[in-house]
Specification:
There is one protein chain. The protein is of the alpha+beta class. The protein has one domain. It has 8 helices and 8 strands. Strands 1, 2, 3, 4, 5, 6, 7 and 8 form an 8-stranded mixed beta sheet that branches. The longest helix is centred in the first third of the chain and has 38 residues. The protein is globular and about 85 Å long.
């Protein structure tokens, strides 16, 4: 009897060990495949962990790669992505993420020597240009993503870089430190997430006009998501400081004008 119990315990321990070793690899492959399915581009990551009890996914140094034909290897550099999953819902076939935090260090928009823009390689952009319909619609013949629900998304974007190689030689480079830090709610489509990032990149830079890239279609598809935006503490404080400075300057200007008028009326004929 004791030997049987020992064997059972040994088997359970071995099974748990195998699961703990392989689960991260399996889920990592799933994340890579899913991201490629959504964006059409490959990705790399240096660290990945999944806590199955708490449902926490922690990804380190994820990079979405540019397609072939571009000198710059990366389109997106994300040092960290944090995801809080609803494990029972995922087991049931729906990707329910209660909290997602994306820390994007750099987003690089590139126009190569042929005048081709790397953004046009994204599936969501191709769908918008090709069909002129909502880019979130499923296309016939393509693998479909399972239902997705993101309750709360915190998106941080540090810097956006634009590189134009179309004139030949060294590229024309423009950098924009946008320091975006906003929170959104109720995202129900993976393509909406990609559209949101593109729209925020373009809205906070002049790249759209320089690269002749129109995001009005993508913007219209995510109007509800954009309206849910909440600036986080750092950005809100910065905006408040700017507003206070503007009011102070305006008050100073009004006071100076009033003093000048009073002086003119008190001495209407000058010296």
């Amino acid at each position: 009897m004791n030997n049987k119990i020992i064997k059972i315990i040994t088997i359970v321990v071995i099974a748990l060990f195998v699961v703990s070793v392989t689960k991260d690899l399996i889920i990592k492959v799933g994340v890579e495949h899913g991201t490629q399915l959504i964006t059409g581009l490959k990705l790399r990551m240096s660290g990945f962990s999944f806590g199955i009890i708490r449902g926490i996914v922690d990804i380190k140094n994820m990079r979405i790669l540019n397609p072939k034909g571009y000198k710059d290897p990366n389109m997106v550099d994300m040092p960290e992505i944090y995801v809080d999953c609803d494990v029972p819902a995922i087991i049931g076939g729906k990707i329910h993420l209660t909290k997602v935090r994306i820390d994007m260090k750099e987003f690089t928009v590139v126009k190569n020597e042929k005048g081709e823009l790397n953004l046009n390689s994204l599936k969501v952009v191709q769908a918008e240009k090709k069909e002129g319909k909502k880019s979130t619609e499923a296309k016939g013949g393509e693998a479909k993503m399972p239902p997705l629900q993101i309750d709360s998304l915190r998106l941080k974007i540090g810097k956006v870089v634009y590189k134009d190689y179309s004139a030949g030689g060294a590229p024309v480079v423009k950098e924009f430190n946008i320091n975006l830090d906003e929170e959104y709610s109720n995202i129900d489509n993976p393509y909406s997430l990609v559209s949101l990032i593109l729209v925020k990149v373009m809205m906070n830079t002049t790249i759209g006009s320089m690269a002749n890239f129109d995001v009005s279609g993508l913007k219209g598809n995510i109007s509800d998501t954009l309206s849910s935006a909440t600036k986080m503490a750092g950005q809100a404080q910065e905006a408040a400081t700017k507003a206070t400075k503007t009011v102070t300057e305006a008050t100073k200007s009004v006071k100076e004008t009033a003093d000048a008028v009073q002086k003119a009326f008190s001495n209407p004929f000058g010296n």
